[in-house]
Amino acid sequence: MMPYPSGRRNSITDVPGVRVGHLTHIAPAREGLRPIRTGLTGIFTCPPDGRVARPAAVVTVGGRTEVTGLNFIDDFGFLTNPIVATSMRALGRVYDAILSRRTRRVVLGWPPVVVGFDDGRLSEQRRTVFAEEEIAGALDGATDDKVSEGPVGAAAGLVAFGFKSGVGCASRRLATNGAEYIVGTLVLLNLGTREDLRAPAAGKMRVPAAAPPPLRGSALVIVATDAPLDDRQCKRVAASSLQGLGRLGSMSGTREGVVSCAVSTGVALVRNDRSRRLIEIPRSSEIVLAHVADAAVAAAEEAALRSLTEVRPRDGTREYPAMSASRGRG
Prior knowledge:
By secondary structure, the chain is an alpha+beta fold. It has a single domain (about 10-325), classed as L-amino peptidase D-ALA esterase/amidase, CATH 3.60.70.12. The chain has 6 helices and 14 strands.
């Protein structure tokens, strides 16, 4: 695989047209209930006016992750809404909030694409925490700045490989056939045991042996690129990105559910086009596609590792420490 240099900020927002917003909710224990460590993360690849869709495809491995809107993407081959990751406990509330269209700066519609994570290891599941106004505010606040990484947004209560995990991002630049493109990834990990981890120096880390994996292990990979791809090519890229996660640790199709979604911001599809004209969707050559897929593997691998290394020691717990503390840096 060719080496691909990192993007300017090494973030998914290096890809033109991508915006990300977080909502983090942390509250202490009360009334006999456990603390809350939860949130949501929204990834936008379409303009805020709702008039343009993007070619997209989703690949899933295992059935341990709940995702809404998959049939729409599979059938039509494009994405119209943001991809929102949140707690499985809040999935329905976030879905309803998107349909209520309380946002002021972005146009949302049907079907919402919401990914649910089991954050019950660190967060109380019997407490309702999100109001529709808060959800709308987080989505309205999405920006193309460098994405905040670590235990924020949907990753506030996630754990992976016996460690506290967080949001991880990475990007890669590539030049081929006289053109330059960028590939960006965002990864959320909530799966795996200490024995699964294959990261460098993993054997030197001190991890409590009693740290159990999530009850419903899952992972989400978002790949965005400004290379012009159709939905078939997006599916190739989404499938390739899972190799990056595999390099970090083994993932069984029976114990976890892994979702990868690839989106091309290099193509703008006009929504609600009622004309009968033939629509031609530009797409890259197979040579360019191969480079995009390779860059997605490299970016997904780094983003997955950063989802662990970007957690500060004070954000870990006794049962799920930060990887940096376990390596003696805390």
